[in-house]
Amino acid sequence: MEDFYRGFAQRARDLAENADPFTKRRLLDLAQRYDLKSRPGSPGGRSIPPPRATPPTVLFAGSGES
Fold first, then answer.
1. What count of other Cβ atoms lies within 10 Å of the Cβ of residue 25?
2. In a domain, 66, yes or no
3. From first to last of its 66 residues, what are the pLDDT tens digits of the chain?
4. How many CA atoms lie within 13 A of 24 on its CB side?
5. Domain, as residue range, for 8
């Protein structure tokens, strides 16, 4: 899996070489994130999000009349 992410990071860098400044910055940021994922045991790798402290609030409640 590390090679997979390393390959994506390199592809993003290759594309960034010929991109406009905005796209270049985005591609280089993406490459950096892929580099983090390519390192085993790194914080950038897959992780489970922390559980919610409170349940989600209900957006629509009641009979629907205002």
1. 12
2. no
3. 788 899 999 999 999 999 999 999 999 999 999 999 888 765 555 555 566 666 666 666 666 555
4. 6
5. 2-38
Residue 27: Cβ within 10 Å count: 19
Is 50 within a domain?
no
The pTM (predicted TM-score) of the whole model is 0.58
As a whole number of angstroms, the distance between CA 15 and CA 28 comes to 9
Give me the number of domains the chain comprises. 1
Angle 60-62-63 (CA atoms, 0-180°, nearest 5)?
Answer: 110
Q: Please indicate, yes or no, if residue 14 is contained in any of the structural domains.
A: yes
Instruction: Report yes or no on 61 lying in a domain.
Output: no
